[in-house]
Structure formats: structure tokens, C-alpha cells
Amino acid sequence: MTSRSVATLIAVALIVGAAGSAGAEVLRRILASPLVEEGSGPDGCTPVLSGLGGPVRWEVRVERFLPDGKSLVEGSHIAEPNRFPLCIADRPVAKNAEVDLPFVAHAGGSARVAGVVLRFSDPQDFYVVEADGFAGQVRLLSIVNGERRDIAGHAAFLTIGEAHMLTVKATDEHFAVALDGTNLFAVRDGGLTAPGRLGIWSRADSITSFGDLYITILD
């Protein structure tokens, strides 16, 4: 999928989200401002580590396949399989939301992952929808008291060096997941019911360029 296609999907998602729920709050959480220099830290989220490994280092990098030409990349290159770098937006805090995340997966590293974090309360408790290029799958996981549990998944192919759009809609116990506008699966889970923050997720030394979060509040 080209960067132009991703930009079109973003526009459509924002229009549909605004029209689909009267009074719904639509936010663009800018994680990597196009106005800052390459190598700067994130300006729309807070670095967090879940799991093992050393400190998290998110950096703004040029990414020509994303609409603004900038992205957020986790650059510490620590190949610990149980290391999950997160960057969590301070707001909104919501239980129910629809989130669109454009990203580009690059070759290199022992993992190839991009994910959307939902209902984050702390590094030990949250949901994540993860696109895994090596596994060829998109899946929903819960992390409760630091224990990861696979809830549902579906086969999906990530093209290296091209933009993709990961979409998740969480409404109470219902979760619906899509990639590049194609619905993959819908599932129910009641493990984490409290409102929480939203963010992005990586794994080990994945080289993934993350665009901004586009959030429609459904509470």
C-alpha cells in the first residue's frame, strides 16, 4: 500500500468517525512532529517499557512513506524477545475508541512488529493489537499483571518498506480489527474494563516507523 493510499484511509477514517457517532471526539495525537529535527524525542507520548531489557529510546526519523514525512522509531536495537517498548499518549483516557495507526515495517532486527495499545493503566495492564510481520499475523493480546495472553488473531501479510494502516475498534467487551481497510476479526473479551490511555507498541529490536494516532472516542 502506498503512502497516498494510507493518507486516503486516514481521511476516510476521520470522516466516518465524525459522522458515525454524534458528538464523538476525534483526535490526532501527533507522536513525531514534522517541525522537529530528526533524532529528537517524541512530542506526543511518553516512553514506557513492558517486559525485560534496557531503556526505551524513541526518536523522530524521516519516513517518506508516511504522509508528514516523519515518524517515531524505537532506536535502542535491543534484541530481547520479551522486551516491549511502548509510547503512551497522555490523553485521551477512554474505555471505548476507534484507533487508526499508519506504520512502515522495515527489514532488519529479530522482530518485525507494530501495535496499538488500548486501556493502558500501567506497564503490566493493557490491551494491544499487534501486527507481526514474521508471524504473518495480526492478533489481540491482553497483558494482565504482566502476563500476556493471546485472545484472537488472523493471518495478515506485511509488505516491507510500504505503509500499512492498523485499525482497532474497542466497544466494551467487543473488539474489531482491520488492516489496510480489510476486516480481519471480531472478538469479545472482558478482562480489562477500566478506561485507560492509548499508544503504540513495538517488540525487541523491530525497525518500525510509526505515524500519528487517529482516535475517535466512542464513550
Architecture, CATH level 2? Sandwich
Look at the structure and name the CATH superfamily.
Answer: Exo-inulinase, domain 1
Could you tell me how far the N terminus lies from the C terminus, measured between alpha carbons in angstroms?
31 Å
N-to-C order of helices and strands: HEEEEEEEEEEEEEEEE
Instruction: Give the class from helix and strand content and strand pairing.
Output: mainly beta
Strand percentage lies at: over 45%
- Mind telling me the CATH class? Mainly Beta
How is the main sheet built?
A: 7 strands, antiparallel
Overall structural domain count: 1
In terms of per-residue confidence, which ranges show pLDDT below 50 for 5 or more consecutive residues? 1-22
What form results from the Cα inertia axes?
A: globular
Number of helices: 1
Short description:
The chain has 219 residues and is mainly beta. The protein has one helix at 3-20; strands at 26-29, 46-51, 58-62, 70-74, 83-88, 97-105, 113-122, 125-132, 137-144, 147-155, 163-171, 174-179, 182-188, 197-201, 208-210, 213-217.
